[in-house]
Amino acid sequence: MGGTFDPIHLGHLRLAWEAQSLLNFSCLEIMPCHLPPHRDTPASHADHRFEMAKLACADTPAFHVNDWEMKKPSASYTVETLEHLRSEHAADTPIVFIMGMDAFHNFCQWHRWQDILSLCHLWVAHRPGCALPNSDSKESGILRNAQTTDARALLSDSNGKVHIHNTTALDISATQLRHDMKLGIEPRFLIPDIVWKHINYHQLYQCQQTSTD
Hints:
Layout: E1 2-3, H1 10-23, E2 28-32, H2 46-57, E3 63-65, H3 78-87, E4 96-100, H4 101-104, H5 113-116, E5 121-126, H6 138-146, E6 162-166, H7 174-182, H8 193-202
Parallel strand pairs: 1-2, 2-3, 4-5, 5-6
Helix pairs in contact: 2-8
């Protein structure tokens, strides 16, 4: 699962946990992006975002925070990351890329998007209130050709399927969290306590240092 994780929050972690629980991955990779190609520069430095992800995942043995994209000096494109992961696994090993429905709406604008399903399956998290792609969109065509309603079907092949998962409704936005912290509003019960302590100690997102006891 990739993203800027700026900061990582309970919505990210719950989505990862639901995928892990249903598919029983031996390892679920959390891959913070160093330089996102299609969005603004992250608000916090890559080192902090990587450390926050490690702190958030420390008590979940099945989660591994991967630093491959962190080490790239150039923009991180999903297809290149998947090619790297595919090179590390047998050709018949299923690889599942976890993404949100909001991102899937623009999937066919991604760099070399046509190659992605030859490298992995897509697990698309569908939150309440987020519409499916328009019926005449390329993304809708992908669903018609590749969608499976059975999550476990992703384990029978190495790539090529799309599963839409109705995820637990946690309306948490990293953008809103950053906005609130800048105003001095603490993000308790929205991010792991250990992540909040890191943010508070380093005064990330221009938050004012407060007690974390």
